[in-house]
Amino acid sequence: MSVDALKSALPDYAKDTKLNLGSVTTTSSLTEQQLWGTVLASALASRNARVVRELAEDAADYLSAEAFDAAKAAASIMAMNNVYYRATHLLSDDTYGTLRAGLRMNVIGKPGVEKVDFELWCLAVSAVNGCGQCLDSHEKVLRDAGMPREQIQEALKIAAVVHAAALTLEGEEALAPATV
């Protein structure tokens, strides 16, 4: 199992990340599609090739082809939206927040999976990318659809742990002595 490969690759000082990676992928109250779509979308948002490869391998065992593509689409659309909406929120001139974005976001309306699952994946990616405006928007849609806060929190924990694993492995790679 690829989660196990990632856990094995994490150094001893990252024991908490290793333990958390195991628990968020095995003790979830999310559906398998919600869980593994969140894992995959978060891995893609982490931008770590090894984490993406390892977790995509596991996700493929639980996701249909449509759900796998939808998780990738969530990571892609939120990469754009998180930058745009975070920037308009951070600018001192509030007028930017009132202007029409004019960016295509058709996949949000027709993601190819249940809307609540896609929104959950968008929320997780927004957490990794640090966009408060997108987090608020997706959390509201999820809550309005009846998703309990505890399940929304699970997606946030998955995003946090996957991102921590990605950064830890990147740091280890950067610190490793160069080989000739």
Automatic annotation (TrEMBL):
Residue numbers annotated as active site: C131 (proton donor), C134 (cysteine sulfenic acid (-soh) intermediate)
Family matches, as Pfam families: CMD (PF02627)
Entry EC number(s): 1.11.1.28
Keyword Flavoprotein: no
Swiss-Prot/TrEMBL GO biological process terms: cell redox homeostasis; response to oxidative stress
Domain of life: Bacteria
Swiss-Prot/TrEMBL keywords: Antioxidant, Disulfide bond, Oxidoreductase, Peroxidase, Redox-active center
Disulfide bond positions: C131-C134
One term of GO molecular function: hydroperoxide reductase activity
Reaction equations catalysed: N(6)-[(R)-dihydrolipoyl]-L-lysyl-[lipoyl-carrier protein] + a hydroperoxide = N(6)-[(R)-lipoyl]-L-lysyl-[lipoyl-carrier protein] + an alcohol + H2O
Residues annotated as transmembrane: none
PANTHER family: ALKYL HYDROPEROXIDE REDUCTASE AHPD (PTHR33930)
Function of the molecule: Antioxidant protein with alkyl hydroperoxidase activity. Required for the reduction of the AhpC active site cysteine residues and for the regeneration of the AhpC enzyme activity.
HAMAP family according to UniProt: AhpD
Quaternary data: Homotrimer.
Protein name, as recorded: Alkyl hydroperoxide reductase AhpD
Organism: Actinomadura logoneensis
